Amino acid sequence: MKLYFTRHGRTQWNEEHRFQGQTDIELNALGREQAELISENLKDTNISAIFASPLSRAMDTAREIAKYHDIEVVSDKRLIERGYGNFEGKNYETITPYDPDEFWSFNFDKENIERMDSVYDRIENFLDEIIDNYQDKDVLVVAHGGIYRPISCFFDGFPESGSLEHRTIHNCELKEYTIHSMNLQEKYFDFIKNGTKRIELSLNDEKRQKIKVNDTIRFRKNDKSEAMTAKVIGLHHNQIGVVGIEIEPISYRPAN
Questions:
Q1: Catalytic residues
Q2: Which of these three, 177, 194, 229, is where a domain ends?
Q3: Confidence of residue 174 (pLDDT cuts 50, 70, 90)
Q4: Which are the contacts of 165, defined by CB distance < 8 A and separation ≥ 6?
Q5: Are residues 173 and 191 in the same domain?
């Protein structure tokens, strides 16, 4: 499946460099123009479903895109912006008492701000669900800058510094990812979990023939109790219908 991700159009609080968080701020005139432009750019894309944050700035952007696809936008609360607690409505300079690496880390939990690891958990849950339900289709997600940060970790890995400060996306910028889902028997899943960097697969399965370098694979045990995301970094074909796939693990979700 292909996943398209975009951030909502511009708002007045964006112009004023204020934390919006879960405060429901509408698109401004520029934001509506941005939504119309990305809608035009995506009108010939074969999108099967559109999911959006319930906040109006995301829903209105998504509805503008949906008009070309005869699709009802699905509001999903897991896509709502990170809660910025005491900082909502305040200027970005509010964070100056905190080191940026600390503020944008996964475990920052001061000022009643939602921890980023909590945001990641709800995004991972959302992504697993749509990967299950739309394996051969293309999906658009319209959300927020704070939601792009865990999305980028899911597909591109976690920053070595631990800080997500530079994992940013502009208003109505488009990101595109290709992801494949594979359920594995426990012993094969454990090979990957324990460090195997190459797997061999039969190419008789049409789905597996579509795998390309830089795609993402979501490996899960057959019982779905554990999951791992990996980036495809190499493909080696032979003459008997088997492909060797080199992978770089990105993240691991343990059993609950």
A1: 8, 81
A2: 177
A3: very high
A4: 100, 101, 103, 104
A5: no
